[in-house]
C-alpha cells in the first residue's frame, strides 16, 4: 500500500477524558456525529481486504480512501493538526507554521 497524496499529516485530538490521540491522516470529515480520519492510498485488492475502505476512485480500482480512525465528536475537546510530522518538516522552527485550529471541513485554517 502506498500513500497516494504524499505522506499523511499529523493530527492531535484531545478528548474530554483527558486522553490525547495522535494520528496520521490526509484529513477528516464529520459523518453521523463522528470525526472520520482517512488517507488516500493506492492498494492492491489483497491489501484492501486488510483495511476498511471508505471509497474508491471510479477510474482506478486500486485508488481508495482508507479509514484511519472514527472518533465520536461528543468525546472531542480539541482538535489540532494538518501539519507535517516534525521529522518530515524542512527548514528551522522559526520558519515553520505553528499548529493551527482546524475548520469544520478538516482543512487548515
Task: Give a short synopsis of this structure.
With 109 residues, the protein is mostly beta strands.
Describe the structure.
This protein has one helix at residues 45-48; strands at 2-3, 9-15, 20-25, 27-31, 34-42, 53-57, 60-72, 76-83. Strands 1, 4, 5, 6 and 7 form a five-stranded antiparallel beta sheet that branches. A three-stranded antiparallel beta sheet has the order 3-2-8, with no helix packed on it. Mean pLDDT is 84; it is low at 91-105. It is globular. The protein is built from one helix and eight strands, in the order βββββαβββ. It starts with a strand and ends in a 26-residue tail after the last strand. It has 109 residues and is mostly beta strands.
Defining key terms:
five-stranded antiparallel sheet; mainly beta; 8 strands; three-stranded antiparallel sheet; 109 residues
Q: Would you tell me the overall average pLDDT?
A: 84
Low-confidence stretches: 91-105
Q: How many DSSP E strands?
A: 8
CA-to-CA gap between the ends? 30 Å
Strand content: over 45%
